[in-house]
Amino acid sequence: MNPGEELVIRVKVSPPVKVGTAGVATVSTPNGIAASLAFVK
């Protein structure tokens, strides 16, 4: 990716995450770049 570009990732989990559940989603690349996002459904 180039500076300023964005990557949108859409994930469908099975079984679905229940309402009120907290979690962390982490995406990483083979060269060690990582990004995490905390969420509550």
Protein architecture, described:
The structure is a single chain. This protein is an all-beta fold and about 40 residues long. It has one domain. It contains no helices and two strands. The chain has a two-stranded antiparallel sheet with strand order 1-2. The N and C termini lie far apart (about 30 Å). The relative contact order is 0.28. The model has no long low-confidence stretch (mean pLDDT about 90).
Major β-sheet profile:
2 strands, antiparallel
Structural class: mainly beta
| Helix percent band | under 10%
- How do the strands line up in the largest sheet? 1-2
User: How many structural domains in the coordinates?
Assistant: 1
Amount of beta strand: 25-35%
Supply database-style keywords.
mainly beta, 0% helix, 34% strand, elongated
Topology:
Elements: E1 22-28, E2 34-40
Antiparallel strand pairs: 1-2
Give a brief outline of the structure:
By secondary structure, this protein is an all-beta fold. It has strands at residues 22-28, 34-40.
